[in-house]
Amino acid sequence: MSGLSDLPSLARVIDAHGLAAKKSLGQNFLLDMNLTEKIARQAGDLTGCDVLEVGPGPGGLTRGLLLQGARRVLAVEKDPRCLPALAEIAAVSDGRLEVMQGDALEIDAAARLSAPIRIVANLPYNVGTELLVRWLTPAVWPPFWDSLTLMFQREVAERIVAQPGGKAYGRLAILSQWRATPRIVMSLPPEAFSPPPKVHSAVVHFTRLETPRFPADAKVLQRVVAAAFNQRRKMLRSALKGVSPDIEAHLTRAGIAPTERAEQVSLEAFCALARSLAEDA
Ligand code: SAM
Fold this sequence. Notes:
Blueprint: H1 2-5, H2 10-16, E1 29-30, H3 33-42, E2 50-54, H4 60-67, E3 72-77, H5 83-91, E4 97-101, E5 117-122, H6 125-136, E6 147-153, H7 154-160, H8 171-179, E7 180-188, E8 193-194, E9 201-208, H9 218-230, H10 236-239, H11 247-253, H12 267-280
Parallel strand pairs: 2-3, 2-5, 3-4, 5-6
Antiparallel strand pairs: 1-8, 6-9, 7-9
S-adenosylmethionine binds at residues 25-30, 54-57, 60-61, 76-79, 82, 103-105, 122, 124, 127.
């Protein structure tokens, strides 16, 4: 691993390859290797694991993952300007790093990896939640990954771990806590990144559950939760009117008062509602 430790500093790499950050690609780079290794450590023991990294950029976290002993890292990067910097890391990775240029929303990365698989990423903010929802909502469970260790804006991280009763509670909390156990494991100030974003960030570690916490169909649950929180201040009987003509009966069957608002309803009750709706479909 000595080759990895001997690579030039990330600031020099960015300079040498002219990697001026592009806002359109959500580019806020981590330059401190102590920090990127610390993030990689939050993913647990990587020896014997394949890792999918989305958006390696100049490769700070990629280096951290390799230094932590990952068996293999598949790094998917949209910006072709980053490829030469990533090739320098690949050259000293003992064949453990594969870089793919493309859009993570379009690439079937699972097909290129072997279990056990961990996903670790300092996600581009513009596609972060979309990727998370995709990873959490495949029709068949368990999914291809064992854990996710992901950087989000702090406010998004708080929505992921939120409990009923507050403004942060919504679709992300329900989908995340239904099939996984998410925990905020690190907080980072804007100055940790170059350029610094406007907001604070946080790393969330998700351990998947072997079976979802409560039974429900992923599509039905997603539809119900999206409708319920789209009009979160309305009573559920009117927010969910479009979901079923018999919504009051379904709500009652699920043990939810039709006059309740989405914010007050537990994950368990949303799953019961999804089951009741699926029975009638
Ligand atoms: N991992 C690097 C780090 O920690 O310094 C860079 C993180 S930066 C927040 C996000 C990275 O994701 C950028 O390198 C950007 O080019 C890349 N990116 C943006 N959209 C992407 C997409 N749809 N698919 C793959 N990579 C993407």
